Amino acid sequence: VKNNSAIRMMFEEGKRLAAQYGPENVYDFSLGNPNVPAPEAVKNAIIEIVSEEDPIVLHGYTNSNCGYADVREAVADSLNKRFGTNFSFKNLIMTVGAASGLNIILKSILNPGDEVIVFAPYFVEYNAYVRNYDGNVVIISPDTETFMPKLDEFEAKITARTKAVIINNPNNPTGVVYDEATIKALAAIMEKKEKEFGTSIVLISDEPYRELAYGGVDVPFVTKFYHNAVVGYSYSKSLSVPGERIGYVVIPDEVDDSAALIGAATIANRVIGCVNAPSLIQKALQYCIQHDVTVDLATYEKNRNLIYGALTEYGFTCAKPDGAFYLFVKSPVENEKEFCEVAKKHHVLVVPGSSFACPGYVRLAYCVSYGQIERSLPAFKEIAKEYGLCK
Ligand code: PLP
User: Which of 23, 119, 267, 351 is most buried, taking the most CB atoms under 10 A from its CB?
Assistant: First the structure.
């Protein structure tokens, strides 16, 4: 629990500074909370559902731990249409966001002491999710040139205890998107190791940022490239509804012991403590899914162009993000926490890379107003000057 508090701590610090200096003079890039409003369709669907539906049914427990069958059918149809897959509603479980989707899969597959591989830098809550079921996280060190998976180290670290591999595409905190060749290379290694050890290794693709990919970049759908792949998805970012807590997992028929895994995950969806996905937002989703509604991505892309362009111009080194809404910046000093403190003196709040198992870097969440980014640029320039990155 202690290890998970760094991002929130920065956010709290931001609120303290805003109270002292005024919100317009504080540049808080700490939290990945969408700043683009949810589409009108979400509001309209909620109003219509609340007005029309029987409240006893609508506000009651859903009739299945997996979620409403017609909502799952709509999700399956949409995936099949977009990715050429062949899912039915039976392959889908509606979840309380991506967070609980990951938890129900891990609860279903892990025995104490089993290993789960992650690629640094990664979303630090994976540590907590894996430890919830007495699993051990095995970290692949970061390739700081490309932020793509280090394949040699990956192959070397797979053991007979490896039960799962988590990837996150597009990636938090780097914004990097793993391409098809990378997914195929990961799959080939996992298949080889499954044969060598006679085990089953599940590839869990955590995809809350799937729709946030810029310039037409392709985010491969992993179930097409690996037989033992499951996908965890969330509408937190694509519909800007993180507070509504809604997502799903897809468990294809091709997965080893698929029926058993779906059965276990269905029960896990109840017993991990969140007792299935919220009813109202599930119902509201149906309309949004059927009409391909997503938030206006142009806002994030514009923000990315502004902040990436300016920071690289000032001499900072950053991975160019193709997706999500984060910029991962190399700290000009080895200890990035020191850099965070210097940034704070200029009222700029960023999160240390050690919170993502990648010290020496900081993360900026640019899901903030364009105006905030514009106002923050002189502060970034001052910081760059302080480190001799520019004049
Ligand atoms: N996975 C990653 C990589 C995230 O960044 C987040 C949230 O920011 C989550 C999972 C959890 O998302 P959700 O709100 O859908 O539970």
Answer: 351
Distance (Å) from CA 99 to ligand 1 centroid: 6
- Ligand 1 centroid to 204 CA: how many Å? 14
Q: How far is the CA of 87 from the centre of ligand 1 (A)?
A: 24
- Spell out which residues line ligand 1, taking CB within 6 angstroms: 32, 97-99, 123, 168, 172, 206, 208, 234, 236, 242, 247
What is the chain's Cα-based Rg? 21
pTM value? 0.96
Instruction: Give the residue from 168, 266, 267 showing the smallest Cα distance to 219.
Output: 168
Distance 234 CA to ligand 1 centre (A): 7
